[in-house]
Amino acid sequence: MPRIPDWYCQVGGMITDWPLYVLFAEKGDIAFLPEAMGVYRLHPGGAFSPKSDLTKLETMEMLYRIVNEGTEFRHDKDLRAGHGRYFLDMARTYLDQGRTDLARRCLREARSYRPRGQFRGLAEAFSLEVRSWLRRRASL
């Protein structure tokens, strides 16, 4: 069991699972199992689920930053890639829901944290932006 560093407590207890996986991965090998091995329950009594969508996005932005800084950027490339993927997925979700304000915010966030020197995902980001613009224009 790794020592729990101070940065781990900065996320306010809302999201504790995957930063813990990062800590374990730094101490030894871990594996990814592609099968569903558990269930995530959404309920109003949780710490994260009842928050507003904007608060959830702000928390995720903070979480990626804190984990990256807390691990002294040892996993910068992977964390930046995960950050970009998360926010592109959320942009797509919000766009499909017609929530273009949150979709645009997620798209900006995805772009700002894409891995340095990697352009994968930019075509998708551009496509999302165009779809957002077309939906806004159609609603006028």
Description:
- With 140 residues, the chain is mostly helical.
- Helices cover 60% and strands 0% of the residues.
- The longest helix has 21 residues, at 76-96.
- The chain is globular and about 55 Å long.
- The model has no long low-confidence stretch (mean pLDDT 82).
CA distance, first residue to last residue:
56 Å
| Portion in beta strands | under 5%
Output the structural class.
mainly alpha
Low-confidence stretches: none
Annotation field: number of helices? 6
> Biggest β-sheet, characterized?
none
Number of domains: 1
Task: Name the helicity range.
Answer: 55-70%
Mean pLDDT, to the nearest integer, reads 82
List the helices and strands and how they pair.
Blueprint: H1 6-9, H2 17-27, H3 53-70, H4 76-96, H5 100-112, H6 122-138
Helix pairs in contact: 3-4, 4-5, 4-6, 5-6
Task: Explain briefly what this protein structure is.
By secondary structure, the chain is an all-alpha fold. 60% of the residues lie in helices and 0% in strands.
Which terms would index this structure?
6 helices, 60% helix, mainly alpha
